[in-house]
Amino acid sequence: MLKHEDMTTTAACVLETLPPDIWVSVSDVYKLTGLPEPRCQLLLTQFRLAGLMESRNDDTFFKRCP
Q1: pLDDT at 4
Q2: Whole-model pTM?
Q3: Taking phi first (over 0 means left), then psi (-120 to 50 degrees means alpha), and beta for anything else, what does residue 19 get?
Q4: What is the pLDDT along the chain (66 residues), one digit of tens a residue?
Q5: What DSSP element (H or E) covers 54?
Q6: 40 and which of 15, 29, 53, 58 could share a cystine (Cβ 3.0–4.6 Å)?
Q7: Which residues contact 59 (CB under 8 A, 6 or more apart)?
């Protein structure tokens, strides 16, 4: 995902760490990456806004778009 010019290396690593087609919560991403939970929430929300992820339950769970 480093093809997106404005994406940071950290964000690209987080996106690549997430399993495809599985709903994950912010705490799941926190456990996988070790980043602070607010940072994980921000990244997941930015991914959703960029069309790279879907969300459900008021941005509680996220899933990578195919």
Answers
A1: 54
A2: 0.84
A3: beta
A4: 445 556 788 999 999 999 888 999 999 999 999 999 999 999 999 999 999 999 998 889 999 988
A5: strand 53-56
A6: 29
A7: 41, 44, 45, 48
Is 4 among the domain residues?
A: no
Instruction: Please identify which residue in the block is written with the tokens 């994950």.
Output: 24
Length reported for the chain: 66
Number of domains observed in the structure of the chain: 1
Residue 53's CATH number: 1.10.10.10
Residue 15 CA to its chain's centroid (Å)? 5
Give the structural domain span for 60.
9-64
